[in-house]
Amino acid sequence: MASSLDAHLGSQCGSDPVKRQVADTIRNLCGAAVKLRNKIIAGGEGHGQAHGATNAGGDVQKELDVVADRLFMEAAEASPLAFFGSEEQDEAVPLKPDASLAMAIDPLDGSSNIETNVSIGTIFSILPVDEEHRADPSKVFRQKGSRQLGAGFFIYGPQLLLVMSMGNGTHVFIFSPAFGGFVEMKTSIAIVDKAKEFAINASNYRQWDQPIRSYIDDLLAGSEGPRERDFNMRWVGSLVADCYRILLRGGIFLYPGDGRKGYAKGRLRLVYEANPIAFCVEHAGGRATDGTTPILDLEPEGLHDRTPLVFGSKREVERVGRYIADPS
Ligand code: AHG
Ligand code: MN
Ligand code: MN
Ligand code: MN
């Protein structure tokens, strides 16, 4: 029998008490993910309906956004966490005052896909909490992504998957109802260096800065243009699904800043989307930047700060950086 998630987490922690708390938190998140999966597969007309409010980022909250937020907040309350930061809550929520961890979460990623039976997900980021954060909680979610102790995402698709890293490779687990838990599916993923696919919401083309347009133009020109091969395009609209595909077969994902109101830094949030995705991608040998700067080196302005996000096959992400650095 393939080793379960428990065995993997045990192997990652050794006797380190903080790592054990990270592992305990991930175990609790798995319980919430299975509950959410059961609600999703049971269907429910209301899931994709507007809940009647907008969140701090201005997204209209769907019913399932709110249901997911409640499930993961319950899991957080049962975990060794001092703070809980969610896409669906304006402020960080204080939990256990003496705990040494904080968690930021996108409870439901890909909300626009809820009623279309397309894969959606949950993205989480686990950070340390020390005295300076207890003294000034506003600093908790302004930590750089390089300080993450663990991060990952669940995908609610044909399979319920957990993709995670505690800093020692990126690994995939599949929920097995027969086993009654998550079992190892892929260990130490390595993103291939050559990309053959790109992921971008091309409807925003007219809003992008010129270097991004030039880069996409050259991908579209393929081997008839300056590129050595033709490329294919995929855009799911659920970050977790696009990321998992890229982890498995390489490629590049771009959500650049654009000219729309409020989207100068793009649509994606740094703390609970870009940072955890970057952590998993980098620990799989890929790269994640805001176009030029590594995502994990960026200092968030706050829990809901946005960032342009480019990630995937190392060579391709570095090529985007050259288009931006030398637009000639
Ligand atoms: P969320 O549903 O958590 O708000 O995130 C949706 C994000 C991300 O999953 C996806 O890559 C992106 O929004 C899609 O953006 P567009 O709808 O602009 O394509
Ligand atoms: Mn949203
Ligand atoms: Mn999201
Ligand atoms: Mn979301």
From TrEMBL:
<comment type="subunit">
    <text>Homotetramer.</text>
</comment>
<feature type="binding site">
    <location>
        <position position="106"/>
    </location>
    <ligand>
        <name>Mg(2+) 2</name>
    </ligand>
</feature>
<dbReference type="Pfam" id="PF00316">
    <property type="entry name" value="FBPase"/>
</dbReference>
<dbReference type="Pfam" id="PF18913">
    <property type="entry name" value="FBPase_C"/>
</dbReference>
<dbReference type="InterPro" id="IPR020548">
    <property type="entry name" value="Fructose_bisphosphatase_AS"/>
</dbReference>
<protein>
    <recommendedName>
        <fullName>Fructose-1,6-bisphosphatase class 1</fullName>
        <ecNumber>3.1.3.11</ecNumber>
    </recommendedName>
</protein>
<keyword id="KW-0460">Magnesium</keyword>
<keyword id="KW-0963">Cytoplasm</keyword>
<feature type="binding site">
    <location>
        <position position="201"/>
    </location>
    <ligand>
        <name>substrate</name>
    </ligand>
</feature>
<keyword id="KW-0378">Hydrolase</keyword>
<feature type="domain" description="Fructose-1-6-bisphosphatase class 1 C-terminal">
    <location>
        <begin position="192"/>
        <end position="323"/>
    </location>
</feature>
<feature type="binding site">
    <location>
        <begin position="109"/>
        <end position="112"/>
    </location>
    <ligand>
        <name>substrate</name>
    </ligand>
</feature>
<keyword id="KW-0119">Carbohydrate metabolism</keyword>
<feature type="binding site">
    <location>
        <position position="106"/>
    </location>
    <ligand>
        <name>Mg(2+) 1</name>
    </ligand>
</feature>
<feature type="binding site">
    <location>
        <position position="109"/>
    </location>
    <ligand>
        <name>Mg(2+) 2</name>
    </ligand>
</feature>
<dbReference type="InterPro" id="IPR044015">
    <property type="entry name" value="FBPase_C_dom"/>
</dbReference>
<dbReference type="InterPro" id="IPR028343">
    <property type="entry name" value="FBPtase"/>
</dbReference>
<comment type="pathway">
    <text>Carbohydrate biosynthesis; Calvin cycle.</text>
</comment>
<comment type="similarity">
    <text>Belongs to the FBPase class 1 family.</text>
</comment>
<feature type="domain" description="Fructose-1-6-bisphosphatase class I N-terminal">
    <location>
        <begin position="51"/>
        <end position="185"/>
    </location>
</feature>
<dbReference type="InterPro" id="IPR033391">
    <property type="entry name" value="FBPase_N"/>
</dbReference>
<feature type="binding site">
    <location>
        <position position="108"/>
    </location>
    <ligand>
        <name>Mg(2+) 1</name>
    </ligand>
</feature>
<feature type="binding site">
    <location>
        <position position="87"/>
    </location>
    <ligand>
        <name>Mg(2+) 1</name>
    </ligand>
</feature>
<keyword id="KW-0479">Metal-binding</keyword>
<dbReference type="InterPro" id="IPR000146">
    <property type="entry name" value="FBPase_class-1"/>
</dbReference>
<dbReference type="GO" id="GO:0042132">
    <property type="term" value="F:fructose 1,6-bisphosphate 1-phosphatase activity"/>
</dbReference>
<feature type="binding site">
    <location>
        <position position="273"/>
    </location>
    <ligand>
        <name>Mg(2+) 2</name>
    </ligand>
</feature>
